[in-house]
Amino acid sequence: RNMANFTAVSGFLLMGFSAKPELEALWASLFLVLYLVALTGNTLIIAATSMDDSLYSPMYFFLKHLSFLDICYISVTVPRSICNSFRHTSSISLWECILQCLAFILCGSAELAMLTVMSYDRYVAICLPLRYEIIMNVNTCIHGILAVWISGVVSGVMHTSATFSIHFCGANVIHQFFCEVPQLLKLACSDEYVSELGVTGFVSLVAFLCFLSIGFSYTRIFSTVLRIPSAEGRAKAFATCLPHLAVVTLFLSTGAFEFLKPHSDSPTALDFLLTLFYTVLPPTLNPMIYSLRNKAMKAALQKFVKKRKAYLFC
């Protein structure tokens, strides 16, 4: 089918967090605070890793791109939801929904790929330290970033094309604060969503392979770290890989929980709250996790903030 025949509806209605205006405004305010925290934290990491010469290494190169992905990921859903809440509207056009769906899946898939590449970088650094500079050279880093974005684009286009190639029947109400694929599939006529299930299966397989790769990397990492004779050496190794493991755990566990839990026909406020754990929480907490556990990152951030203050007061 061509794009003009995708669906008979011209738009959808996104459900808010509450029917009460004061509670809706409270949720919107919370969203705004979390969004600003995520933007500030990730922007600081991008600035610090770009301007500090001591952070010119593959690990911080990938961290900078992860922060950029986090900004994109949270910006796909949250600003629109905030605007809808403050404007007391819930409508979203078909094309806006398609673009939001595409961007959300693209960023989510790319983030998983990025975390996989970063786990491989930590594996090489800790398990193969003498060959690190040879393996993780400039070409490897660039190819890694290209693979991340290509995987995101392919997943996004496949998922979005399959989702919007179906016809939607009945009410055009999406019981979520953004155009989420599982909620859209509930509006499908009869069994037209079968083609989407095939795409979901393929993407799930790729995600599972990423999970296995990350699991293998960290199994080898911990095995190597525990054999380091000095306590200081073990502490230094753990300090570089534990923040990444925390980010991986947060992203994978919250995402898996959201997609595996049963979706009710009339979601409660708790269901909306749980959605925050994989859409808003990872991009917001990632900068804190990396900066709190990483001495080099904390030093770079402090140096950057001091420079900005000195520039402002000059």
Walkthrough of the structure:
With 314 residues, the chain is mostly helical. The protein has a single domain (11-298), classed as Up-down Bundle (Rhopdopsin 7-helix transmembrane proteins), CATH 1.20.1070.10. It is built from eleven helices and three strands; from the N terminus they run βααβαααβαααααα. The protein has helices at residues 21-51, 58-87, 94-127, 132-135, 138-163, 181-185, 194-225, 231-260, 269-279, 281-293, 295-313, and strands at residues 11-14, 91-93, 173-174. It has a three-stranded mixed β-sheet with strand order 2-1-3. α5 runs antiparallel to α7 and α10 (281-293) packs across α11 (295-313).
Can you lay out the helices and strands and say which pair or pack?
Layout: E1 11-14, H1 21-51, H2 58-87, E2 91-93, H3 94-127, H4 132-135, H5 138-163, E3 173-174, H6 181-185, H7 194-225, H8 231-260, H9 269-279, H10 281-293, H11 295-313
Helix pairs in contact: 1-2, 1-10, 1-11, 2-3, 2-10, 3-5, 3-7, 3-8, 5-7, 7-8, 8-9, 8-10, 10-11
> What is the 3D shape?
globular
**What ranges have pLDDT less than 50 throughout 5 or more consecutive residues?**
1-7
Number of helices: 11
**CATH H-level name... which superfamily?**
Rhodopsin 7-helix transmembrane proteins
- In which order are the strands of the major sheet placed? 2-1-3
Strand content: under 5%
**What is the count of β-strands?**
3
Overall CATH class: Mainly Alpha
Largest sheet: 3 strands, mixed
Order of helices and strands: EHHEHHHEHHHHHH
CATH topology: Rhopdopsin 7-helix transmembrane proteins
First-residue to last-residue Cα separation:
61 Å
CATH architecture: Up-down Bundle
Mean pLDDT: 82
Main structural class: mainly alpha
